[in-house]
Structures are given as C-alpha cells and as structure tokens.
Automatic annotation (TrEMBL):
It comes from the Eukaryota. Residues 9-340 form the MACPF domain. PANTHER family: MUCIN-5AC, PERFORIN-LIKE PROTEIN 1. It comes from Hypsibius exemplaris. PROSITE patterns: MACPF_2. Pfam families: ApeC, MACPF. This is MACPF domain-containing protein. InterPro entries: ApeC, MACPF.
Length: 614
C-alpha cells in the first residue's frame, strides 16, 4: 500500500501526519472526556477532538524519513472492504455514548489502571461539542435516532509497549516540572494537554452513518401499540422511562420502526476517506500506567541525570508521581464538570382531547408559566420557550407523578420547560384583561402585574445546566439558580376564577397550600422537596416557597380541562429511576469523595492509591 499523507488541524496548527497505518496515533495521547469518535458535529464527523497526535507520550522512531510505521509498532495493511451494517436505536444519551464506546474498545490492562479507564469512559465524550449537540437534539428537540453504520478499515497499528515502550523525552521533561506534593492545577494541566490515556492500538479507515430521525412522540405511540409493558398509558397520556426500552432494542424492533414510523429527516454523516483515514477503533492504557521504572530507558536516565531531574529516578518519588496522576484522573471529571449520561422520561398525548370553547383569554402583561407536556397554550407561536435543568441532591424528593410537571432526569434532577408571554397576542385570540383576584403565583418576566407582590428563591445547585431559550427573570449559573415570581393572596382559592380552558400550570402560595380553583378545569398539586447547605429562610422571599431550616418545598398546580387527567404515578412505569448521590454532598470529602464517585460509575469497584512508603 502506498504511503499516504494527510493534514489535520490540531490546536490551531497544521501538522503533517503519516496516517496510512495509524502509526501517527499509537503511542500518542487521547482524552476520553473530550474525545468523540463521531467528531464534533452532527452533520459531518470531522476529526475526533480527543486525539493528541502530536503528543508523543511514548518514544517513537522511524527507520527512514519516509516510513509511516514507528519502529516500536507493528503495522498491517487491511483490504478496505466494507464491514457490517450495525443498526442502533438511540433513545437517550446512554445509547449514544454506548454506540461510540464500542469504537474505544476495552482497556488492555488488568491493573488498577483498567478501573480508572472504565471510570473515565463512563463520562466519555461528555465534554465534546458533538456530544452536547446530540444531547440537545434528543432531550430538548425530542428526536430519536436509528443509526445504520458501515465502515471500511484500511490499516491497523499496535504499539509494542511491553518490550519497546519507553516514555518520550518530551513527556519526561514535562513530568520533571511537576511537584511531588500533589497540585491539582499542575497535574490536571498535563492531563488536559497530553490526554487521559495512551493509544496502544488503532484501526483506521472511513465511516458512514445513515441516521434516520424520528419524532419522540411517534416512537412512543409505536412502542405503546407494540410493547405495552414498557409504555404506561392513563386516560389520553403516555409515559415511559427510556431505560425500559433497552431490552427491546433488537434488529427486529428497529426493522419494525422503519416500516411503521415515518422518519422526519435522514442525515448522512461521513468521516475519513481512503486518502485521509481516521481512527475507527482504539485501545488505550491509562496515563498513570506508564509512570513506572520499566518505561524509562537508560538513555532517558542519562539525560535526566544530566538535567538534575531526580523525580523519575528515585523509586519513592516516581511512585508519588504515579499516585498524583491517579488522583488527578479521578478528579478530572469532577473538576471539569463532566456528566455521565442518564436515561430520560418521555411524556406525550395519545389523542389530544377536544376542549370546550375558550371562555376566557390570557391576561395582559408579561409572565412565564411552566409548559404543559403538550407544549405552550394557544395561540401557537405567541409564546417564547426555554428550559432549565436543576440537580436534585440525595436528600431531595419528588411527589408521585411529578413527571407531569417537569421531565425527571433519572432521579438526578429535573428539566423545567417554560412558556413565556412577552407581548400582546395577535389575531382573533385577542388578549384578556387583568389577572383575577385569588391565591396563586407564576414566574416573573418583566414587571409583576398590578395586585401581585415580588418573591424569589435561591437554590445552590451545583449540577445545574446552562439555561436554553427564553426563561423567567432570575440569576442562572452552574452553581446556583435564583427564580423570581409574582404572587397574589387577595382571594379565596376555593372561589373559581376564569382563565383559558387549556392545560397550564400555576403555583399555589405557601400560606394557603391549595390550588386556585379555575372554572371548567381540574387541578392536581405536585411538589418537590429540596435540601440546601444553608438555611433557606435567608434565601427565599415572598409567599411562594415553604421553608423549614435547610429544607424547602416548591408546589405546582397542573390544570386540565375537566374530564381529562394525566398519567399520575411514576411507579406505574416499568422501572423506577435510580437514586443519584450528589458528588457535592458534604457526606464525602477527600479520598472518600473520589471513591464515592468511582463506586457510582463502577459498582463494587475497589481502588487504592499507590502506597509510596517503600
């Protein structure tokens, strides 16, 4: 096979890589948190952002300037024939991550390094742009994918690190600058630049993905009609937990979906070519595995002695450096806010009920309400939409059926969707007058209408996601959420008021703790209990939030046209979501915190840091 050259843009510079056999990749670094074998877009894969081809962690030499295979590797040309038509149903980000984890293969080490590899791969790809793009498509745009993948493999390379693997001079000089006393910033700086792993084997070629895109609601209706054990129905509503469908993701089911459900879009995603192949599969060793005496060759020892760098020459010092890298690898996902993928709830309407004629219009002013599962109320197109994710710590809890208020993210948090009215409605729908007297609240957008008082609450939410779209007034960051709301308490909630006859959500006052009665509507109260590190009496103002010490409760009233009801119990779904233990919990600190997050990713795994008191 002739030698092929290609150009890759890495960190702003163009590097000439001899990539015909994968020799440019083996022995180099890879970052599994930022890596994504499918690239960083949803349309054209591009280069895997986790690759660090210029970071030679292991020493590589070439027999001749034209050689494309390192002397320390075994390279084999393959025939380039097409392989497989692998079909995958992707209902959530667990499915998506599983699909590209297959490209990474299993760690080849049986040491504690393999536990670190498995732990880091549980966060795999979550810091890549491509991962976040797909997450938005699945979780916020309600898409479901069926991917058909074909590959052509042109070559493979394996690094003979067992007998010829030695640390490169560039990497050892980087280590020489590190302190023996652990410094998270310095060790994490090396990991971010060089990677979490070393690629020891790679197959290269090209990949083509034919992605059929479906509406989540259409898939849910199909699954309900064909597999009622996994989809729960009550009245005119469907609900299912995505993890419940995994037992059914067979080729037969995918074939049935393609025959019975109309796709909304077909996307073709290609990456690599015969002239510019990309890694299709890789095997790794975790970075700490190579911080050992057997990977330091004599020439390096002589060089380190000349440079007066003793950190890699003394066994105890070397052991401490390896232990420091292990600690940094465990801290890396937590420090850079990586997230493991979770199953999701999906809730839909089977048949939209015919409601009585509207007898009231939406009041004047600007405001936000929690979006019903069917979407914003009529008139369509006159409401701004947005979402906010908030984590739920281990002491928090949700009332039964809370998924009718917000999407429950596998018990680890909630995604609240908002409908925001920002101006006057146009057309025949018109706009109503003032809000009626009563006892209720809604989220603030702009100024509170006459008769309402301003309130707010703050949640020190360490797991919050960046808000998307148009959301209520407040303050939003990765460390906390502050909502503003407008409340009134100048009427008896038992006395009916006139509002539009369409599903919506209001907030009861904490004092009355009773849903405002609305003519022609039936209401259901749900609630969420939060727990904070501080006394929330200092963080809640107004008459909406009920607080007691470090606990406070938010209430929601969902309204349906009389005669219709939503699915009311999460317990009726096939499988309840698993409880999440918050990484920020003050139950854990130091080594216990790191081991706690390790056990969450790999139940039953035991990992001990290097003991260096030799």
């Amino acid at each position: 096979m002739p030698k092929v050259y290609g150009f890759i843009f890495i960190a702003g510079e163009v590097e000439e890589l001899r990539i015909a056999s994968g020799g440019a990749y083996v022995g180099s670094g890879y970052d599994v948190l930022r890596g994504n074998p499918y690239g960083d877009t949803t349309a054209a894969s591009g280069i895997d952002p986790g690759l660090r081809p210029s970071k030679f962690i292991l020493h590589k030499t070439f027999s001749t300037p034209e050689s494309y295979c390192p002397d320390q590797a075994t390279c084999t040309d393959l025939d380039g024939s097409s392989e497989g038509h692998t079909a995958r149903l992707q209902l959530d980000m667990v499915d998506y991550q599983t699909s590209f984890n297959g490209s990474w293969g299993a760690g080849v080490s049986l040491s504690s390094g393999s536990i670190l590899s498995r732990f880091l791969q549980s966060f795999g790809g979550s810091l890549s742009e491509g991962y976040n793009n797909v997450q938005h498509k699945i979780e916020f745009e309600d898409e479901v994918f069926v991917d058909n993948q074909t590959t052509k493999k042109y070559a493979e390379a394996s690094f003979n690190y067992g007998s010829q693997g030695f640390l490169s001079a560039e990497f050892t000089s980087q280590i020489c600058e590190l302190p023996l006393i652990y410094s998270a910033s310095q060790y994490l700086h090396v990991i971010r630049n060089w990677g979490t792993h070393v690629i020891v084997r790679a197959q290269i070629g090209e990949r083509r993905i034919s992605r059929s895109v479906y509406s989540g609601q259409n898939i849910t209706n199909f699954l309900y009609n064909s597999n009622t054990d996994c989809v729960h129905a009550e009245a005119n509503f469907l609900a299912f937990f995505s993890a419940n469908i995994k037992r059914s993701t067979s080729s037969t089911l995918i074939s049935s979906i393609k025959k019975s459900v109309t796709e909304t879009e077909l996307r073709i995603i290609t990456s690599g070519s015969s002239k510019n192949p990309i890694p299709l599969t890789m095997q790794f060793e975790s970075l700490d595995h190579f911080i050992a005496k057997r990977y330091i060759r004599q020439a390096t020892v002589d060089s380190l002695t000349h440079l007066n760098c003793s950190i890699l020459l003394d066994p105890i010092s070397l052991c401490k450096v390896r232990a420091n890298f292990q600690r940094a690898l465990l801290e890396y996902p937590l420090t850079d806010r990586a997230r493991r993928p979770e199953p999701i709830w999906r809730n839909y309407t089977i048949v939209k009920p015919t409601a009585p004629p509207v007898k009231a219009l939406w009041p004047q002013g600007t405001y936000s309400i929690v979006s019903p599962s069917r979407g914003c109320p009529a008139p369509a197109g006159q409401w701004g939409t947005g979402t906010r994710y908030s984590g739920l710590d281990e002491y928090g809890s949700l009332s039964s059926g809370f998924q009718t208020v917000a999407r429950v993210d596998a018990g680890s948090g909630i995604v609240i969707s908002f409908c925001t009215k920002t101006g006057q409605f146009s057309g025949s729908d018109g706009v109503g007058g003032s809000w009626p007297s009563g006892s209720y609240c809604f989220f603030k957008k702009g100024s509170c209408p006459s008769g309402f008082v301003l309130g707010s609450f703050y949640n020190d939410d360490n797991d919050a996601w960046t808000p998307w779209g148009m959301i209520p007034d407040g303050s939003y960051s990765h460390t906390g959420t502050q909502y503003h709301f407008c409340c009134r308490n100048d009427g008896n909630p038992a006395i009916p008021v006139a509002l539009p006859l369409t599903p919506f959500t209001l907030l009861p006052t904490a004092e009355k703790k009773q849903c405002q009665t609305v003519q022609g509507m039936q209401s259901t109260m749900r609630h969420i209990n939060w727990f904070g590190e501080n006394n929330y009496n200092n963080f809640a103002r107004g008459i909406y939030v009920e607080s007691s010490g470090k606990r406070w409760t938010m209430y929601f009233c969902t309204y349906e046209v009389s005669g219709f009801s939503r699915a009311s119990s999460a317990a009726a779904v096939c499988e309840k979501p698993k409880k999440k233990i918050a990484l920020s919990s003050d139950q854990f600190s130091g080594d216990d915190l790191l081991k706690n997050q390790l056990h969450r990713a790999i139940p039953g795994a035991d990992f001990n840091f290097e003991k260096c008191d030799l």
